[in-house]
Amino acid sequence: MKEPPFPTRDDIITGWIDLCHSEEGSDEYEESFWSCMLLDNLIDNFPLDSYKVILDILARDNSYCVVSATGMSLLVHLIGSHGEEVIDRLEHDVRHNSDLHNALEGIYNQGASDEVWRRVKKLVYTIN
């Protein structure tokens, strides 16, 4: 019996970038939407691994649409669900990564603790 193909890390990154660059409702968007679902699952179950994938996405494509979508979707979910696990890494990495800083600029709080959210907002307003 042949095993079904599973997407690689590179496939996931490419799928997300393709999704960000496509028009909602288009064939390309529908064909790439799996990456969003898989990334949401990765964030829920493997927050530190998903954080590394987010950094890889931003390193590969720092266009406005990818940076803003990554912030408004993936980082909002990650910080809201696992802020305590990733805030120290965010504070370290944002100082050396302007694309990560830009992705954080437009996010909103969706479940982060008051302390984590205070630290995130401090990053947005004090680093650039």
UniProtKB/TrEMBL annotation:
Record-given protein name: DUF6869 domain-containing protein
Organism: Oceaniferula marina
Start and end residues of each DUF6869 domain: 24-123
InterPro entries the UniProt entry points to: DUF6869
Domain of life: Bacteria
